[in-house]
Amino acid sequence: MTAAMHVFDNGAALAEGLAEAVASTLSAAVAARGKASIAVSGGSTPKAFFKALSGKAIDWPKVTVTLVDERFVAPDGDRSNEKLVRDNLLIDAAAAAQFEPLYYPAATAEDAAAAATKQTAGTGHPFDVVILGMGGDGHTASFFPGGSRLAEALDPATPRGVMTMEAEGAGEPRLTFTFSSLQDARLLVLHIEGAAKKDVLAKAEAPGDEAEMPIRAILHRAASPLHIYWAP
Ligand SMILES: O=C(O)[C@H](O)[C@@H](O)[C@H](O)[C@H](O)COP(=O)(O)O
Known about the structure:
The chain has helices spanning 11-33, 47-54, 81-88, 109-119, 150-154, 179-182, 195-205, 215-221, and strands spanning 4-7, 36-40, 63-67, 69-71, 98-100, 129-132, 162-165, 174-177, 187-193, 226-231. The protein is α/β, with parallel strands linked by helices. A 7-stranded parallel beta sheet has the order 1-10-9-6-2-3-5, with helices on both faces. Strands 4-8-7 form a 3-stranded antiparallel beta sheet. Helix 1 crosses helix 2. The longest helix has 23 residues, at 11-33. It binds 6-phosphogluconic acid. Residues 41-45, 68-69, 81, 133-135, 140-141 line the site of 6-phosphogluconic acid. It comes from Pararhizobium polonicum. Belongs to the glucosamine/galactosamine-6-phosphate isomerase family. 6-phosphogluconolactonase subfamily.
């Protein structure tokens, strides 16, 4: 499926443009179904978008925010995506949103993934909004090249839910929604910035194995149209 490219002059313009599109989608979901859900990625790219979205006039108490993926670290640590979201998105008007974490203080990442799957079972199916990022190695979510359970994570037959992933480039053990959980979002977005990420995208769009660049699974076989938001 051909992706729709949304190109902006700079990161600030992209943040506002993406926040507007997401706010519109979430408000439409609340109007149609009485609730809305959004799964966001961590990393360094989304901060300005989070802050732009946090001030939007949405019926936030009816919106559930969760994460596309998480590092298996406590939510007060600097590597925590939950901390990133609490500090940059769940502020201002968006402080009234519901939040469903993926990290749970379990003995193992597997136990935390099982808890996250149970706790998020009523959210999504499909998500109203999914915001994906992409690493320089072509990973998205925690679908890393060489990942311990990559084939299972990308398998369309794998049930929706949260699973563990370990990989050389991932740092801590990861908790990630499966491909099947993310790929049919009503608004499916890939948010990347900079020339280097644009080059990575071009390589990923060329024919090649998903195992080499897992973002290819989203680019080539997501059920929903993909909206790529990019600024220099
Ligand atoms: O937990 C994470 O790190 C993210 O979910 C991950 O998938 C991220 O989107 C990419 O690594 C891009 O990260 P940057 O925005 O920092 O380049």
